[in-house]
Amino acid sequence: MSSPILGVEDIIKSFEKLNPLEHEMINYWHYFRFNENPVIALYIPRIHMYNEVSPFDYEYLFRIVSVIKTLNSLRLRIGNPPIDVYLSTRLALLPEKFHSKLPCLVLEPTNYNFSVVHKGEALIKAMLKLKFPFISSNLWDQELLLDTIQKVIWGTISLQHKYYPVSRGQDIIVRDIFLLGAPVFSLKELQIENDYIHLSFKVVFPPEITENHLIEKFLENIENTYYDLSSIETNIIVDAARVIPDKKIHVIAEEAFREIYLREPEYEWFPFPTVFNVLSKNNKEILAIGPHSHINLTKKEEINISEIEEDKDLDKFVQFISRLILKLV
What we know:
Shape: elongated
Strand content: 15-25%
Structural class: alpha/beta
Mean pLDDT: 88
CATH architecture of the largest domain: 3-Layer(aba) Sandwich
CATH topology of the largest domain: Aminopeptidase
Number of strands: 12
Order of helices and strands: HEEEHEEEEHHEEHEEHHEHH
Largest sheet: 6 strands, mixed
Number of helices: 9
């Protein structure tokens, strides 16, 4: 693996060189089996929509290299590694056929924190109706319309939480700490049609938030405006996920982490849904962890595998995964 990985095909070839017993691809997800009796499933999701490797895929390739090095390391020690690997080459829905019932380790950019809680994702669509006839040629009506729209949108996307200090103006470090517990709205669509405004928002929300909470949050921002609510609908795209970290994989992972990193692992919520949300519905033996942060993605115009192999964090992460798997065998 001394040469650069130049594209998706090179990634797949890197795994095929390890002589998997099986290789199947469905909906941009690749499944590799390396042992007839696997004890764990490793998932490497991609969080970008790009078709090819992008300048923002350093973390993604880091996770891939760490799994390949883990497979090679275990092969030298115990023969065919008892691992199933599921790899996505772009952001895509995991096929039901690839929902493993084995203990699962989802490799994501958690900055080496353990994660057993992932936010869900919803879509809110609303239609507002002006309370008085709108005259498009009237400059005052135009200004009033735009001012009201701005207030509704700004109020909706402004971060608020019942307990956490996440509003603008808070200390940035404190805000980042508590931000993961707050629902986050982002404007997806805005359309003005005569006396009506059509709005849609994408929302990522923590487990305790319900559809009613999301609607109430939006309705707060149209009170005392010149608009009435004509209609509103919510669509939960992905449910939020929460797993109690009391299963065997959590205990073993904590042990392996202490042995390799010489400190206690820290648990943190993940700020958007991933394959973890889908798998954890029917499999509670699951944990997410990975190098680097989902916030500050590394940008490199050219990503060379030799550079990743020289990353000071790679060896320890490979040791951690290997130690965890050996404890399961």
